[in-house]
Each structure stands twice: as C-alpha cells, then as structure tokens.
Amino acid sequence: MSKKIVVETSDEYAEWKNQVGWDKLNPFERMELAEKEQLFDIHVMDDPVTYQLQPNQIDYTQKKLMTKIKSKIANWASIIGINHFIKKGMFALKEIKGLENWQKVTTGSIVTCNHFSPNDSFVTQKVLKASKKKKLYRVILEGNYTNPPMLKFFMRNCDVLPLSSNGQTMKKFLRAVDEILGRGDNILVYPEQAMWINYRKPRPLKEGAFRFAAKNNVPVVPMFITTEDSTNKKGEPMPLYTMHILEPIYPKQDLSLRENTEYMKNLNYEMWVELYEDVYGQKLEYLAK
C-alpha cells in the first residue's frame, strides 16, 4: 500500500480537498481517489449540516417512556419499510449464511458490518430480529441524528447511539455502551467509519468497536454483506445481498485492553478479506496511485 496522507487538522483537510477538486467529484470518483490515497475512512458523501448534540438531547439507554414508545414504533415501521423496498424490487436479500454463529452468542456483543448503503443497517436488523430477541442498537454520525438527510423519525428512534462532538455527550455515550452491553443487548458499529456507496471491498478498520468489546469482555460478531448484480421484475437493476455471519471473536483473558483491541480488529479484517476473496474469487487489491 502507498503511504496514507495525514490530514491532521481541518485546515489541512480543506486544503487537500481544494487541491484535488473534491467538490466537483461525484461519490464514485471520490471513492476511487480516496482508495488510491489510502484514505479509507473519508466520507465520500456530503455530510448534513449539523449542530453539536447536547447531553440532555439524547436518551441513549431509553430510560424515558416516550423514548421506548418511539423506539417500538420506529422499529416496527422500519421492518415494514424494508419489506416494501424488497417487494418493489429495490434490492433483495438472497441468503443468510452463518446464522448459527449469531444464535450461539448468549451475552451482549458488538456487531460489525461493512457499510455501503443507507439500507444495510436495516438489512442487518431484519436478519438479526428473526433469530434473537435481544435489542440491536446502531452507532450513527452526529449529523445523521441532529439533521438527518431523510427519514428523520427512523434515524432518531430506531435504537440509535449518535456520536457527538460534545465531550460531555460522548461521556454519556460511552457509559451507555457499557450499560447496553452489560445487560446483554447488541450494538452495531461500522468499523470502516464512512459509508462508501455500493463499494464491495473490505476496508481497514478503526479500533473503536473493538475497544468497546474488549473493555466489556464481550465478543465481536463480524458480519459482511456481499452483492450480486441482478434485475427485478421490471427489468431494472437490482442488487442481491447475501449476509454472512462469521465466527464470533472473543477477547483473550491474557491480553491487555490495548492488545485485545488490536487483536480483535486485525482478526475481524482478516476474516472479511478471506470471505471477500472466497465469494468474489479474486485477491483483495486496492487501487494504486
């Protein structure tokens, strides 16, 4: 791999974007450029204009009755919505592989998945709800909560854990992660960080998800969605998704928090790469400059 560009400050980041003409590129051109530069965590979609989420604006662990009611409505409606999208031929869930790997997890867990579509978290929800009664929370960007680009009610109420640029809110977020995992529920984290639309390759992972798991002594359940090109009944392009649920990764008792974080992160990535190469029949290679 080529050396990754280090964009350490917002000024440097803005300057680099200006130099490459970022604003004039479409998301697919941005992904190609970012891959060549090894900037795998960069957001290729324009982020919504947002404001800083304050601690009193979010009930992470759903202590309030109204939060619980909205959550039930949003999750029920989201499943109906996903079924509607499938019926309309927007995409199809072809197969679920490795469901037994999910069913044998009896504690809370961190679920990881590749992030390539606004719908992939709802696909994950549909898959997991069919096999286990535990709740699935989702970590989302601050802007997707404070100023969601669409489907505002769902983005705010489907068991979400928004990140925040506010330090006190993030302390509340971290306490909520510990509580949720401790009571046996599950948290979906996209460890690639950014959504790359329709991108099929696994990308290098950030450590946050694995630190959550190591700190709380719970497994990581790696999931990966592969895609096939197809057409719907109208002859329009339609992706076929296969959900792969891989063997859970458990922290090792003889490793430190830092060592376990690194161990679980590296193994998750290796498992994704092996699956990618097996399903698509090609070696994982990133674009070079």
Low-confidence stretches: 1-9
Spatial arrangement of strands, main beta sheet: 1-7-6-2-5-3-4
Shape: globular
CATH fold naming of the largest domain: Glycerol-3-phosphate (1)-acyltransferase
CATH superfamily (homologous) name of the largest domain:
Glycerol-3-phosphate (1)-acyltransferase
- Rg for CA atoms: 19 Å
Separation of the first and last Cα atoms: 10 Å
Order of helices and strands: HHHEHEHEHHEHEHEEH
Helix content: 40-55%
Structure description:
- This protein has helices at residues 10-20, 27-36, 65-87, 99-103, 120-129, 142-146, 152-157, 167-182, 208-216, 257-280; strands at residues 92-97, 109-112, 136-140, 160-162, 186-189, 220-231, 237-245.
- With 289 residues, it is of the alpha/beta class.
- It has two domains: 1-39, no CATH class; 48-280, 3-Layer(aba) Sandwich (Glycerol-3-phosphate (1)-acyltransferase), CATH 3.40.1130.10.
- The longest helix is centred in the last third of the chain and has 24 residues, at 257-280.
- The protein starts with 9 loop residues before the first helix and ends in a 9-residue tail after the last helix.
- Residues 1-9 have low confidence and may be disordered.
